[in-house]
Amino acid sequence: MRTLLVITSLLLLSSPLQAQRPAWLPVGARVQRNVAYGPATPQRLDVYAPPHAKGAPIILMVHGGGWTRGDKNSAGVVQNKVRHWLPKGIIMISVNYRMVPQVNVTQEAEDVARALAFVQQHASAWGGDSSRVVLMGHSAGGHLVALVTADSALQRRAGVRPWLGTIGLDAGAYNVVTIMRASHLALYDRAFGSDSDFWRRASPRLRLDHPTPPLLLVCSTRRRDSCGQADAFATRAREVGSEASVLPLDESHAQIDSRLGADSAYTSAVDIFLAKVGLH
Predict the structure, then answer these.
(1) Which of 123, 147, 241, 253 has a 20 to 30 Å separation from 5 between CA atoms?
(2) pTM of the predicted model, to two decimals?
(3) Helix H segments across the chain?
């Protein structure tokens, strides 16, 4: 099917639009908003590119929101990350996707896989390098990037090519079966329903049966079982031949997203991972 590109705004943020540049957006940054990677209205992404980008590596960011809400434009999703990585010559792309109840969670993962394939196909149009992409997601978005990483059939259907690595930011829901069989928040019922077969299909840990790109799993020590789920998923990844590390942080669930990119040991640790997989 012919890919449809819809760009509702293109900002070349150097003179004469410099006065319109938000304080968090680096000088000269180029922004393309609402680029369509699919026919549905939510299937849109925003591209933040450094000036004169050529062969630039790419971070593809997937927002959270309990699988039912959230937006690619949210301050915590993009601001510190764009401010930190664009000056390093890295393109940041933030993606929206269809949500429950319009679709189910595995279809959300299909959107993320489709967005990744689209970015790989069109990277050069933004000055990017299609072979140097890292997939990143927070909360529900972290679960979705993990599911894309774990499900090789999903990757094939979407036309995804190999990428450098995956970073989960306090995803937690690596094993949905474990969550649903214990006391849990109502948001999990809304997202995963009552079908235990669906729980298994939506569980990255249970889907993973092949070597993957390297994984960095950031988890909040303030959340019950967030790090336990991350540890179990990392263990499973190592069992199938992948590199996987867990980064526990004494930060809130929201701070793990919003503070990434700020000057901190946390950001430095993520930068070390990015350099190790070849993004820098």
Answers:
(1) 147
(2) 0.93
(3) 75-85, 105-122, 140-150, 152-158, 176-180, 186-192, 196-201, 204-207, 226-239, 253-258, 265-277
Which three-class secondary structure state does DSSP give residue 23? coil
Distance (Å, whole) CA 94 – CA 74: 10
Tokens encoding 70: 């959230």
Place of tokens 């789920």: 229
- Terminal alpha carbon distance of the chain: 34
81, HSE (Cβ side, Cα atoms, 13 Å): 31
Q: What are 101-116's pLDDT values in tens digits?
A: 999 999 999 999 999 9
Residue 42, both tokens = 């939510």
The token pair that represents 209 in the structure block = 């049966």
Please check whether residue 119 is in contact with residue 58, taking contact to mean a CB–CB distance below 8 angstroms: yes
Long-range contacts at 32-36 (CB < 8 A, ≥ 24 apart): 32/7, 32/126, 33/7, 33/8, 33/9, 34/6, 34/7, 34/8, 34/9, 35/5, 35/6, 35/7, 36/3, 36/4, 36/5, 36/6
